[in-house]
Design brief:
CATH topology of the largest domain: Rossmann fold
Mean pLDDT: 88
Number of helices: 10
Order of helices and strands: EHEHEHEHEHEHHHHH
Number of domains: 2
Number of strands: 6
Radius of gyration: 16 Å
Structural class: alpha/beta
Shape: globular
Helix content: 40-55%
Strand content: 5-15%
């Protein structure tokens, strides 16, 4: 059972998301928060597997709340941003704060549910338009992954999880996610499998 915390300052949106997720046999909505501060407190006490996080909220915004939740001692919850905003600055701030994924509120129900499941497995989840913006903002046609990004991709290619990659390279899991997101953008892909495939085709990893 995947335990989910829903965070949004609009009650109707929270209720709608909770109702939509609760009908799935493997998903359980364990709590709802109306602002980032409440989200951090509930994440610490409820220990959900995944947090669906709005960005623009009172008291504490989604980026600051994401950083607080990811920093929880132990295996912190995976945070998936769910917002109407897809500017480059918003996307990069969320990723750098440690978000596992970035989806938009017009995401179809099936894709949102699949994204929650993927995030619970530690996989990066990006809306197609978000992946496109990252490609446009970070990648040039000839840009290669940095040495560190290549190291991360090499370990991912061996089947290592983000947490295992972090331990192997002595970096945080949030930093691993940041390297992966930037590598995805440079490679023009949206997931781990495609990143490994393209990187190998280009001879950037063994």
């Amino acid at each position: 059972m995947i335990r989910v915390l829903v965070v949004d300052d609009h009650p109707v949106v929270r209720s709608g998301l909770a109702g939509m997720l609760s009908v799935e046999d493997d998903l359980e909505v364990v709590g709802e928060a109306a602002d980032g501060q409440e989200a951090v407190a509930l994440a610490a006490s409820l220990r959900p597997d995944v947090v669906l996080m709005d960005l623009r909220m009172p008291v504490l915004d989604g980026v600051a709340a994401t950083a607080g939740i990811v920093g929880i001692v132990g295996t912190g919850p995976r945070v998936v941003v769910l917002t109407t905003y897809d500017t480059d600055a918003d996307i990069l701030r969320a990723v750098e704060a440690g978000a596992t994924g970035y989806l938009l509120k017009d995401t179809p129900r099936a894709q949102l549910v699949a994204g929650v499941r993927a995030a619970a497995r530690g996989e990066t989840v990006l809306a197609p338009s978000v992946a496109t913006r990252l490609v446009s903002s970070v990648r040039t046609a000839t840009e290669r992954p940095s040495a560190r990004e290549a190291e991360v991709l090499s370990l991912v290619a061996r089947g290592r999880s983000n947490a295992e990659v972090g331990r192997a390279l002595s970096i945080t899991e949030a930093t691993v996610k940041t390297h992966l997101i930037r590598a995805f953008a440079k490679l023009g892909v949206a997931d781990r499998t495609a990143a490994v495939t393209v990187a190998r085709e280009r001879g950037w990893i063994a």
